């Protein structure tokens, strides 16, 4: 023993290790431990329930603490306490006890034999250490404790659910063996205190297993008999009488004969207990047959071991109709075996235990009823009914088992199933069936059904259904089908009101239905199940319709002028209910019943129908003044309707709705946009009336007014964007309307800024009319006397700079607006859905751009031929309404305005171009008129055309005209807005240049050259100059003879300068100009933004170059000029002035202009004058011809289209346009040569020929592509000139 105790075998031999250790310890038990635990079936895969650990733990705790009176022996309590402590220590994860691995294996395998062996090991160690058990006494005590532990296990299994009958029968066998060993100690000891008595053996060992001992005469000793008597309502006397009546029939021999008959029926292929045709496959049948033979043999062996006298009822002869290989084991075999061996060990699959010859196959049984399954089902019903009656009298807080069955009834059912050969699959199915129809009668709670399903599921897990008998398979399918119908009906009733339906209410039904459905046992009822599920879906739909109808009636019954409110409440209700159902039931019930989808599928179409019925009332209510239906409510209704449609599309993909959401709500969006368009003027007025309209804020130098103005546009843009309109084309149309309103807003703002800017540039006098007239007369008289007009310096203010900065800021904000609404994408959508012209309902409008370039050949209106008018030009329509007006060009007979205006035309239009002379007092005089016919057919080539209009008096005016189709396109309207900003900026900068230009001409002119040149010739006669000034003064105020001349000092008399002028002296002539520029450019530098500052400085530099150019050469014309060429010295002075101006504008790199910008093409053309200025006339003419031919060859064959609003729709396209213009090849010096030739004699004919040749070449270039595109189409006839309309005076 010591050697064995010291071994530590591997895990796989642990069971044999325990057996070997106990072989010597249990000397009074069976001869070997293997005999005790040999499995007659040959299969040891059956596990006890996991719940047994918990029940056993509580049982051992009570025994160890002396709380269980049945097990109050001191040794029993001590051994159980040690065993319990070992289990607790082994359960700890950090335990290093040797028994830890054994305990883990027991918990994993759940074998009853391993648990008993673990107890034997622990008990052996505890009893051997007891000093009171000397010698072999501890061995006898060990036998007693093993018997006690087996009884404890049996009691615990009775308190545990889902115990396989094989475990119960095996434990009963162990109990019988240990009891037999106690009665037959085999000479090694006597039945001592630890040996169980006959009373401790269960009644089933005598009554049910057929013990050879005489059955007890009193029913008090027959526990199961008492349970049966109570079940059938028998009194103790009646039960005793019945027992006495049948005791001769119901004997141990009869029980053994029943087992024999079952064995013989199996061999004879009789219906009971089973045969091949009861199973689907040979595998299933052979498995059942092997297990059934083993179980029957086990029961017979237990009876023989308990009562060896029963072996004499088993003769030794064998039935002659069995072959030698299949000869069954006879009773003589059992009698010849020693008691210490296990006869079942000699039974193989070829050896069957047969009954005596007098036992025949058939249905003659004593203990087995004619229909065992029916009887068992009735017994289950009776047990359940009796236990339900008993539960009615229990306290409410007392917990009861979900199986309802009491321990006594469970034991009775187990014993009956064992003796009646009821399969485990039938037992669990029968219990579920009884629970099912009792649940239908409201006799058991719903929680019992999942318990029954769990029992069936466990049975199917242990033994697959394909190994069940056909009857059991059909039975369980029928029961599952019935359960499915029952709980579908319960679910149908629960769906009565889906608004109040909660998951916990239907969770038990769904759980049962899911369990039944996923089992695969109801596939045969698939068609019926689908029909029932469709009924459930229809019920949900009907309930949803009723719910919607009731809510709609409730909301519509309350009269309210705002017809949108009931619909809003209705959409809110539908959305909340759908979200509530989705939150409560995120997954479809039973995988197919989606409550949210069914509800939305039924309710949304009804709502859309009701919404369509309210189309006219909603539209009429929103257009009334004041509106009864606010647009805000309408758009809230749109958003909620869109949400409902989105939910319907998500939850009901198989039931799409064809509803035109955009078509229903489009009129309201258009109404909103109309209101927005009407507010643009109000927004501009609000900005203008602000206290801080043109106060610079921030580094950019613009005021907050422009930011506030574009903030007003942010609201409608956000509004349209947030609508997420379903129709992309309609959304593009909406943004087109908004773009048009934005363009209108920008144009209004530009007009406002220009008006305010002009008020600053040309301030009005605050005197009355008389003072104004008197002042004008005196000023004219003074200028007439002096013989010259000196320009008054105009000093610019910061407010003017802020206005310019506002225009630049507006361009940046408009560009951000362009990118924000993605105008290019919207235009692409519009082009994809473009309507053909034949299908268009509205006539197309055309946008003419008329640029008033210049006038020439004007004659003064005064008698004084030397006077020059202050001219401006206007455009008027046929009704005399002014369409455009230029700025005023002072004192010029060849004014150049270069101002463009847009005129929108639907049909042809006559336009009158007037040149007028601005009057200081009274009406402006008309210098001349010309007429222009704007016809879309004439300008259909979309090219730029230069038209000279002859004035009715003398002279002519040049107009540059282009046309483009006015389109409902956001790119078009953004282009107009950008062009309005650009023109406003150009006009304002041009006014600034007009204020600076007189100062430039005043200090850079031929008179200044003459003065500078005289200082180098004759001596400066100061007395003569002073005498002239004095004489002029006396002629004005009267002479005084008393006055005397002032003598001059000698050093000032007759001084003459013969040396050349220095650079300082030449530059000093420009000193007053530089002083003026210093003061104003400093204002520009501090108050203009960087971009605007660069533009203004570039324009001032261009004006400087133009002034220098006009000083050197006359303007380009086809007639000779009376202007004389400068001398070489004068030319040198002029170019030094140009150098000084260049250096001044560059300012050593501090200027916003770079040398590349300063030395532009015009600057280079000026430098070329120095080259050609001294050439002979013939040389100049030859060079002019060569350069013109070169220019014509380099000119493109197809003339470019005019600059359209599309090329100015954002800052990106504007920059691209500038880049292209910069990259174009610069023109030659032919024009400059012609201008020089105008100062040479005998060049009149050549200049005229050059002009005619250039005009002819230009016409051929224009007409060639026009003829290719138009074919032989005749030009549209021009109607007669309309009568001259009356002029409308506008100051």
UniProtKB/TrEMBL annotation:
InterPro entries: C2_dom, C2_domain_sf, Glucose_resp_signaling, MUN_dom, Munc13_1, Munc13_dom-2. It holds the Pfam family C2. Residues 194-212 have a biased composition (Low complexity). Gene3D superfamilies: 1.10.357.50, 1.20.58.1100, C2 domain (2.60.40.150). Residues 635-753 form the MHD1 domain. Residues 1067-1184 form the MHD2 domain. Residues 826-949 form the C2 domain. PROSITE patterns: C2 (PS50004), MHD1 (PS51258), MHD2 (PS51259). Residues 1-20, 183-220, 1257-1291 are annotated as: Disordered. Residues 8-18 have a biased composition (Basic and acidic residues). Residues 1280-1291 have a biased composition (Pro residues). This is C2 domain-containing protein. It comes from Tulasnella calospora MUT 4182. The lineage of its organism: Eukaryota, Fungi, Dikarya, Basidiomycota, Agaricomycotina.
């Amino acid at each position: 023993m010591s050697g064995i105790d010291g071994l530590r075998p591997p895990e796989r031999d642990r069971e044999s290790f325990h057996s070997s250790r106990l072989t010597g310890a249990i000397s009074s038990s069976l001869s070997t431990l293997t005999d005790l635990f040999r499995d007659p079936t040959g299969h040891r895969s059956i596990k006890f329930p996991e719940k047994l650990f918990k029940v056993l733990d509580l049982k051992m705790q009570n025994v160890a603490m002396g709380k269980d009176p049945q097990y109050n022996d001191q040794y029993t309590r001590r051994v159980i306490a040690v065993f319990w402590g070992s289990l607790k220590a082994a359960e700890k994860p950090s335990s290093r006890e040797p028994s830890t691995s054994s305990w883990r294996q027991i918990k994993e395998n759940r074998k009853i034999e391993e648990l008993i062996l673990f107890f034997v090991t622990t008990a052996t160690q505890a009893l051997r250490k007891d000093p009171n058990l000397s010698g072999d006494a501890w061995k006898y005590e060990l036998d007693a404790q093993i018997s006690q532990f087996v009884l404890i296990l049996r009691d615990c299994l009775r308190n545990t659910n889902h115990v396989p009958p094989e475990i119960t029968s095996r434990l009963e066998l162990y109990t019988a063996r240990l009891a037999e060993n106690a009665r037959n100690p085999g000479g090694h000891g006597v039945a001592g205190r630890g040996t169980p008595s006959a009373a401790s053996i269960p009644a089933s060992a005598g009554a049910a297993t057929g013990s050879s001992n005489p059955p007890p005469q009193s029913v008090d000793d027959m526990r199961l008999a008492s349970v049966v008597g109570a079940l059938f309502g028998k009194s103790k006397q009646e039960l005793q009488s019945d027992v006495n009546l049948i005791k001769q029939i119901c004997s141990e021999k009869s029980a053994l004969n029943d087992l024999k008959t079952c064995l013989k029926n199996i061999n004879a292929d009789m219906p009971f207990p089973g045969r091949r045709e009861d199973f689907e496959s040979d595998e299933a049948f052979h498995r059942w047959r092997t297990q059934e033979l083993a179980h029957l043999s086990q029961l017979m062996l237990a009876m023989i071991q308990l009562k060896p006298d029963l072996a004499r009822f088993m003769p030794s002869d064998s039935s002659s109709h069995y072959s030698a290989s299949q000869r069954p084991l006879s009773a003589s075999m059992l009698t010849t075996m020693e008691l210490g061996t296990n006869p079942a060990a000699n039974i193989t699959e070829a050896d069957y235990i047969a009954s005596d010859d007098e036992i025949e196959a058939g249905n003659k049984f004593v203990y087995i009823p004619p229909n065992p399954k029916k009887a068992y089902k009735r017994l289950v019903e009776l047990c359940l009914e009796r236990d339900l009656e008993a539960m009615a009298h229990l306290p409410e807080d007392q917990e009861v088992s979900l199986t309802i069955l009491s321990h006594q009834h469970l034991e009775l059912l187990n014993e009956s199933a064992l003796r009646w050969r009821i399969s485990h699959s039938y037992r669990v199915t029968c219990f579920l069936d009884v629970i099912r129809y009792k649940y239908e009668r409201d006799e058991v709670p719903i929680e019992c059904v999942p318990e029954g399903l769990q029992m069936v599921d466990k049975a199917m897990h242990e033994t697959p259904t394909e190994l069940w008998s056909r009857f059991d398979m059909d039975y369980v399918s029928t029961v599952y089908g019935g359960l499915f119908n029952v709980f579908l009906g319960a679910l149908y009733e629960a769906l009565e009101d889906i608004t109040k339906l909660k998951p916990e209410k239907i969770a038990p039904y769904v759980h049962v239905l899911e369990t039944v459905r996923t089992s695969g046992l109801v596939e045969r009822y698939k068609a019926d199940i689908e029909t029932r599920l469709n009924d459930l879906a229809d019920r949900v739909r009907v309930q949803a319709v009723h719910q919607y109808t009731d809510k709609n009636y409730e909301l519509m019954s309350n009269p309210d002028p705002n017809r949108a409110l009931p619909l809003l409440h209705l959409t809110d209700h539908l959305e909340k209910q759908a979200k509530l159902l989705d939150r409560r039931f995120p997954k479809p019930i039973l995988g197919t019943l989606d409550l949210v989808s069914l509800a939305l599928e039924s309710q949304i179409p009804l709502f859309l129908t009701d919404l369509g019925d309210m189309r006219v009332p909603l539209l009429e209510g929103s257009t009334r003044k004041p509106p009864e239906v606010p647009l805000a409510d309408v758009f809230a209704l749109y958003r909620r309707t869109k949400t409902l449609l989105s939910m319907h599309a998500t939850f009901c993909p198989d039931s799409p709705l064809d509803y035109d959401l955009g078509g229903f709500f489009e009129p309201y969006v258009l109404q909103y946009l109309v209101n927005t368009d009407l507010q643009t003027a109000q927004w501009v007025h609000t900005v203008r009336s602000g206290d801080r309209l043109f106060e610079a804020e921030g580094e950019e130098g613009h005021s907050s007014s422009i930011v506030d103005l574009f903030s007003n546009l942010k609201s409608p843009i956000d509004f349209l964007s947030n609508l997420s309109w379903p129709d992309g084309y309609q959304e593009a149309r909406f943004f087109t309307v908004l773009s048009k309103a934005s363009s209108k807003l920008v144009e209004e703002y530009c007009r406002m800024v220009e008006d305010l800017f002009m008020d600053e540039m040309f301030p009005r006098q605050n005197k009355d009319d008389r003072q104004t007239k008197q002042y004008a007369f005196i000023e004219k008289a003074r200028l007439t006397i002096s013989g010259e007009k000196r320009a008054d310096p105009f000093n610019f203010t910061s407010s003017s700079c802020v206005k310019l900065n506002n225009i630049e800021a507006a361009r940046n904000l408009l560009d951000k607006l362009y990118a924000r609404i993605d105008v290019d994408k919207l235009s692409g959508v519009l082009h994809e859905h473009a309507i053909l012209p034949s299908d268009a309902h509205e006539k197309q409008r055309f946008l003419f751009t008329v640029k008033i370039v210049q006038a020439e050949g004007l004659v003064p209106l005064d008698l004084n031929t030397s006077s020059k008018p202050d001219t401006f030009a206007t455009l008027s329509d046929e009704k005399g309404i002014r369409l455009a007006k230029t700025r005023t060009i002072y004192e010029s007979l060849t004014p150049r305005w270069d101002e463009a205006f847009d005129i929108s035309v639907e049909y042809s239009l006559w336009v009158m171009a007037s040149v007028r002379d601005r009057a200081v007092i009274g009406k402006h005089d008309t210098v001349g008129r010309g007429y222009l016919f704007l016809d879309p057919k004439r300008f259909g080539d979309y090219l730029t055309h230069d038209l000279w209009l002859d004035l009715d008096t003398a002279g002519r005016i040049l107009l540059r005209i282009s046309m483009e189709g006015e389109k409902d396109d956001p790119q078009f309207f953004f282009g107009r807005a950008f062009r309005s900003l650009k023109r406003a900026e150009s006009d304002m900068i041009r006014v600034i240049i007009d204020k600076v230009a007189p100062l430039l001409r005043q200090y850079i002119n031929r008179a200044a050259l003459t003065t500078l040149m005289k200082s180098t010739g004759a001596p400066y006669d100061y007395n003569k100059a002073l005498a002239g000034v004095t004489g002029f003064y006396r002629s004005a105020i009267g002479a005084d003879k008393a006055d005397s001349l002032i003598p001059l000092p000698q050093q000032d008399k007759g001084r003459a300068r013969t040396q050349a002028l220095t650079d300082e002296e030449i530059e000093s002539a420009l000193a007053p100009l530089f002083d003026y520029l210093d003061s104003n450019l400093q204002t520009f530098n501090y108050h203009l933004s960087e971009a605007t500052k660069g533009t203004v400085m570039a324009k001032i530099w261009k004006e400087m170059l133009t002034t220098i150019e006009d000083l050197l050469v006359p303007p380009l014309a086809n007639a000779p000029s009376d202007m004389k060429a400068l001398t070489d010295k004068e030319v040198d002075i002029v170019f030094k002035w140009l150098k000084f101006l260049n250096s001044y504008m560059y300012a050593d790199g501090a200027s916003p202009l770079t040398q590349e910008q300063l030395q532009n093409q015009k600057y280079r053309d000026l430098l070329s004058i120095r080259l050609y200025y001294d050439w002979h006339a013939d040389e100049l003419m030859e060079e002019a011809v060569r350069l013109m031919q070169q220019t014509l060859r380099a000119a493109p064959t197809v003339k470019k289209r005019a600059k359209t609003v599309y090329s100015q729709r954002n800052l990106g396209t504007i920059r691209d346009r500038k880049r292209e213009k910069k990259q174009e090849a610069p023109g030659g010096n032919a024009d400059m040569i012609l201008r020089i030739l105008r100062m040479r004699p005998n060049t009149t004919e050549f200049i005229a020929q050059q002009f005619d040749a250039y005009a002819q070449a230009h016409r051929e270039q224009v007409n060639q592509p026009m003829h290719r595109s138009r074919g032989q189409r005749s030009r549209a006839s021009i109607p007669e000139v309309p009568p001259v309309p009356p002029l409308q005076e506008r100051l």
